[in-house]
Write a structure and sequence with these properties.
By secondary structure, the chain is an all-alpha fold. It has one domain. It is 69% helix and 0% strand.
Amino acid sequence: MKNPDRKRSLLFAGALLVLVGLLSGVAIPATTTVRLGLSAHLAGVQGGMLIMIVGLAWNHLHLSPRLSSIAFGTTIFSNYVLYAALQLAALWGTSRSTPIAGEGGSGTSTQETVVELLLLVGAVGVLVSIGLFAWGLRPNRSGQLSINDS
């Protein structure tokens, strides 16, 4: 996929996640754990904005094609996974991996494990994504940002 296509895909994926996050805010009162419902809502909106920021800066990244593909995929995937994990936690009332926001709730062992795994995968993905993003924007030897306008 070419850079302009990736940029547009990131902007779309980010806008869609913001929309989903906003819509889930309406459903907060219907969740088993209201504080986790709020957490999911915020994760959707903030994750979507993060994806769009990466999209806006996409043409300024200096990464190899392989690292570029990894950054692109992990940016979208990890933010959606984090949103999904928190939304499931809010619906199921899990609390093992979110003891503050999930206080008072308790899901089944399987539900708790699913949320834990999704949160772990999402967190690792975001770290990889933002690490690659920072690496791709690092200053070159002259101290200027490495800019790729193509």
